[in-house]
Each structure stands twice: as C-alpha cells, then as structure tokens.
C-alpha cells in the first residue's frame, strides 16, 4: 500500500459489475464537466491505515487558478508500517477547469532502495507516461502510451465525479490513468448518511467504487488486487473527500480527513 495509493488510488476498487459488455465505451459519462460549483482552494490533512494500524499521513493542497487548477499531494508512511516499508512521495496534478481534464501529472517516490519520477502527459489521443528510476533499469526513461481519450488522473477523476449531480442511484462511468495503466471506473451513489471525521459530524454522499483494467486492445479484465471500496463526500457546497474504506489483496485499508482549511473566502472568488 502506497501513500498515493491510499489517498486517491484506493478510490477505485473492483467487484462483479456490468462492465464486461464489449461495448463498454458507449456507457461512459460524457467528457464534459457537470454543473456543480467548482471546488474552492483548500489545504487538508489525511491519515491512512492498514487494518488497525496507522500507516501514514499526507497533506493535500488544492489551488484554483485562471483556467486551471492544481492539486498537490505530499505524504509518507509512518509508525510501524514505515519500519517495514519506507516511502516518501509527492505528486502534482494540473487540471483544466473548463472540462476538468488532467493535462499533466508529476509524481516523485522515494523508497529505501530507489527513487522514481513519473511524468504523465494527457492529450486528445490519451496518456503518455515516462518514468525515470534511480538507480536506472532497462526501462528507465522510456515512454509508455495509453491510447484512449478522454482519460484523467485520479485528481481529475475526483473533480469530475464531484461535479456531477450525484443523485440517489446515479452511476458515473469514466476512464482513469493513475500512473501506469488505464482503468474503467464506476462510481455509484448508494445513499446519504452522517459520518464523523476531523472532529465533527458531516452529512455525506456515500459512493460505491469499482474498477476494471483496460488492456491494450481496449478489452476489460478484472483487477486482481482490489475487491471493493466505499467513499464519502461531504454533502454540501464543497463536496470534500472525507473518508475511504477499501478491501484489497492485503486486507482492509482506509483513509480519513483530519483537518481542512479553506484559502478561498467564498465560492466563485
């Protein structure tokens, strides 16, 4: 489990669902953004865990700029988990506000034995990923292409989902490219409920999340590492990501917001 994975990649888990249809591309949500108001700028802290263990933390900074937005994630493993698996990571996503389309993702990962810098450029033909490793291996610096559009990174996917109406029973289907492969993702609104995080009780939108891997020939296959996931967005004008729980190959992983501070005084500014 990686910190980046725990923060956003855990958002997309798999189970049996109707995406086996060979015509799955016709079921996708239109690439245009929904009409829900844009997210205002903020800085938030999240904690992550693996089963009963606290596994790490991260700081998320979202900034709105004219025509673009930027989401930065900086985190690391901690506690007993860090003694077993050391990771420090930082990722920056740039997203076009008009259609919430990711234009670029840069992610840096530092392990005990290597460093990785991954750059993904998103365009009208899909995603192009270049990964540099230190020490170098035979694939370091090579570019891998995923030929499907529209496709977003995890940050852009989150903004795209929150922009939709999200009425009870609504299903949003889209394609996401976290850093190394393309996936068909499905977010289904399964209810509204109260959830306590960051020292207060929030009204929330509860979503079931699923994932299928997209092969080079654009056929689908199950993802072997994920079983199921649920996330909660605040049911208010911000629709913040508050909490995620997922069942994966190694057991239960979770994340929860610990603190948030808005840097915009009000919506629309």
Descriptive account of the structure:
With 269 residues, the protein is mainly beta. The protein has one domain (3-261). The protein is 7% helix and 53% strand. It is built from three helices and 15 strands. The chain has a 15-stranded antiparallel sheet that branches. It is globular. 37% of the residues are buried.
Summarize the structure.
Helices cover 7% and strands 53% of the residues.
- List low-confidence stretches: 1-19
Radius of gyration, whole Å: 18 Å
- The proportion of residues in beta strands is over 45%
- Give the overall shape: globular
Helices and strands, in order, run as HEEEHEEEEEHEEEEEEE
Helix % is: under 10%
Number of strands: 15
Figure out the total of helices.
3
Number of domains: 1
How far apart lie the N and C ends?
37 Å
Structural class: mainly beta
The averaged pLDDT comes out at: 89
State the major sheet: 15 strands, antiparallel
Reconstruct the topology from this structure.
Blueprint: H1 3-7, E1 42-50, E2 53-65, E3 68-77, H2 79-84, E4 87-96, E5 101-111, E6 115-123, E7 126-134, E8 143-146, H3 154-162, E9 171-176, E10 183-197, E11 200-214, E12 220-222, E13 226-234, E14 241-248, E15 251-262
Antiparallel strand pairs: 1-2, 1-15, 2-3, 3-4, 4-5, 5-6, 6-7, 7-8, 9-10, 10-11, 11-12, 11-13, 13-14, 14-15
Characteristics:
269 residues, mainly beta, 15-stranded antiparallel beta sheet, 15 strands
């Amino acid at each position: 489990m990686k910190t980046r994975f725990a923060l956003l990649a855990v958002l997309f888990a798999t189970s049996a669902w109707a995406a086996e249809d060979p015509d799955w591309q016709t079921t996708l949500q239109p690439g245009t953004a929904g009409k829900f108001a844009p997210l205002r700028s903020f800085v938030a802290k999240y904690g992550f865990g693996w089963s009963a263990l606290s596994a790490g933390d991260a700081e998320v900074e979202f900034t709105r700029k004219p025509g673009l937005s930027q989401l930065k994630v900086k985190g690391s493993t901690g506690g007993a988990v860090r003694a077993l698996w050391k990771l420090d990571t930082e990722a920056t996503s740039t997203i076009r506000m008009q259609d919430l389309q990711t234009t670029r993702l840069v992610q840096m990962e530092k392990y005990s034995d290597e460093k990785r810098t991954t750059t993904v450029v998103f365009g009208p033909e899909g995603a192009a990923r270049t990964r540099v490793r230190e020490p170098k291996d035979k694939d370091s610096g090579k570019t891998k292409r995923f030929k499907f559009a529209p496709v977003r990174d995890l940050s852009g996917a989150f903004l795209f989902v929150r922009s939709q109406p999200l009425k009870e029973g609504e299903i949003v289907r889209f394609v996401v490219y976290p850093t190394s492969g393309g996936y068909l993702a499905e977010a289904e609104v399964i209810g509204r409920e109260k959830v306590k995080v960051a020292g207060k009780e929030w009204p929330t939108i509860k979503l079931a999340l699923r994932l299928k891997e997209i092969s080079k020939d654009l056929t689908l296959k199950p993802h072997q590492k994920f079983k199921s996931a649920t996330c909660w967005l605040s049911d208010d004008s911000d629709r913040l990501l508050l909490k995620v729980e997922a069942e994966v190959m190694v057991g239960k992983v979770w994340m929860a917001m610990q603190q948030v501070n808005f840097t915009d005084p009000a919506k629309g500014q």
